[in-house]
């Protein structure tokens, strides 16, 4: 604690950023890790594990129509923010088993400015019909197949959140690698062993999203499954929206609701980096309390081994302040036609379960699984349960 406070005062006096990670000089692979240069001087550490032999070909006897899902929906956005989703035509059995997702129209403000006020006689006939701000029609057909065994055209991408690193996926990477799947997990800029640019603009959502695009284009194959945790879910959504033909399935772990990202103006992360550095022990303790259902020696060791919340105060502040993504609203998520698995830890203090429930309502094909004994870092707390859920979804195929 005393060392952190001393370093914080020094960085204020000298104008330097504490614990800054210097750029890496080499982009060569070593010990299973690859250092990928996405831009000049911007280097990411990537864990890449590919099966030793190509997977078996698809069974020729399978019907080409099996697993086919037709997405036909009309999405209407009104000027008051109301979203109306209409599923048109034939849908998959997974979708038809649930009630149609029609959002009831919100009350329209009257002349006195109060919604829902009683109308005088004849007023409804004179009132103009609401004009939508935007209408989007989605009409596509996808073939959702299972990924059994070792397939040479399947890649699993794991993307961590703020303050984490690819080490939080240790159990998942080992699990799927032993099953013969090709796995890819990058460190975000300034996290783990990736280089840390000294400018705040390097940690905006768009800058980090372009990094993930470069990683995706480098390793993507015919069928790609995206797995994201917390802030990493936003990058998975971005990639699924940008590459609908390449993204096969998406898994969102404690990612929150389908809302546009906007940094909070009244946040502790708006404090100067030197002050955050002084408060780093308190922040780490708070993250342990909020990120885990239990706070014992096991959880502290998992946090240390996962290299989570071990970033410089400058990177932490810049990443939190750079979470600006106005495009990622409900309409943006409603346009996705890819199957999504939502995993939520019941004791998560960062993301309420209501947000994931709203995400499940907006998405076309979504399955919400709640882990009772888990919290925000559920992949570290309950690795066996998480691995089983992920594997079942990877093997899932519509009838």
From TrEMBL:
Specify whether Hydrolase is a keyword of the entry. Answer: yes
Decide whether keyword Zinc is in the record: no
One cellular component term (GO) for this entry is: mitochondrion
Q: Supply the InterPro entries for this chain.
A: AB_hydrolase_1 (IPR000073), AB_hydrolase_fold (IPR029058), Epox_hydrolase-like (IPR000639)
Q: Which gene encodes it?
A: Abhd8
Low complexity composition bias: which ranges? 109-124
Biological process annotations from GO: lipid homeostasis; negative regulation of NLRP3 inflammasome complex assembly; phosphatidic acid biosynthetic process
* Ranges where the AB hydrolase-1 domain occurs: 155-257
Q: Which family does it belong to?
A: Belongs to the AB hydrolase superfamily.
For this UniProt record, the keywords arranged alphabetically read as follows: Hydrolase
Name this polypeptide is given: Protein ABHD8
Where do the record's region annotations for Disordered lie? Answer: 47-67, 94-132
- Superkingdom as given in the UniProt entry: Eukaryota
Give a GO molecular function annotation for the protein. Answer: lysophosphatidic acid acyltransferase activity
């Amino acid at each position: 604690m005393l060392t952190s406070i001393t370093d914080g005062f020094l960085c204020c006096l000298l104008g330097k950023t504490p614990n800054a990670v210097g750029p890496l000089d080499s982009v060569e692979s070593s010990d299973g890790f690859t250092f990928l240069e996405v831009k000049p001087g911007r280097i990411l550490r990537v864990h890449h594990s590919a099966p030793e032999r190509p997977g078996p070909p698809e069974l020729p006897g399978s019907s080409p129509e099996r697993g086919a899902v037709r997405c036909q929906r009309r999405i209407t956005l009104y000027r008051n923010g109301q979203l109306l989703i209409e599923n048109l035509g034939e849908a998959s059995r997974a979708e038809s088993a649930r009630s149609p997702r029609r959002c009831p129209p919100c009350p329209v403000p009257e002349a006195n400015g109060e919604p829902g006020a009683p109308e005088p006689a004849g007023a409804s006939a004179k009132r103009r019909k609401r004009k939508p701000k935007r209408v989007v029609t989605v009409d596509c057909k996808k073939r959702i197949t299972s990924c059994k065994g070792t397939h040479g055209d399947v890649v699993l991408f794991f993307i961590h959140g703020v303050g984490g690193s690819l080490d939080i996926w240790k159990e998942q990477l080992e699990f799927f690698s032993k099953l013969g799947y090709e796995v890819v997990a990058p460190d975000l800029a300034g996290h783990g062993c990736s280089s840390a640019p000294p400018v705040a603009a390097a940690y905006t959502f768009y800058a980090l999203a372009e990094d993930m695009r470069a990683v995706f284009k480098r390793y993507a194959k015919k069928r790609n499954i995206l797995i994201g945790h917390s802030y990493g879910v936003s990058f998975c959504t971005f990639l699924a929206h940008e590459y609908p033909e390449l993204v096969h399935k998406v898994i969102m772990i404690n990612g929150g609701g389908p809302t546009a990202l906007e940094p909070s103006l009244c946040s502790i992360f708006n404090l100067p980096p030197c002050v955050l550095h002084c408060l780093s022990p308190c922040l780490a303790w708070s993250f342990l309390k909020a990120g885990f259902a239990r706070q014992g020696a096991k959880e502290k060791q998992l946090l240390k081994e996962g290299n989570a919340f071990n970033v410089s105060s400058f990177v932490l502040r810049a990443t939190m302040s750079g979470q600006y993504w106005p495009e990622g609203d409900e309409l943006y998520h409603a346009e996705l036609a890819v199957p999504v698995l939502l995993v939520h830890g019941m004791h998560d203090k960062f993301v309420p379960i209501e947000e994931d429930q709203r995400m499940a309502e907006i998405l076309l094909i979504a399955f919400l699984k709640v882990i009772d004994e888990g919290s925000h870092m559920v992949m570290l707390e309950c690795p066996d349960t998480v691995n089983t859920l992920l594997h079942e979804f990877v093997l899932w195929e519509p009838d």
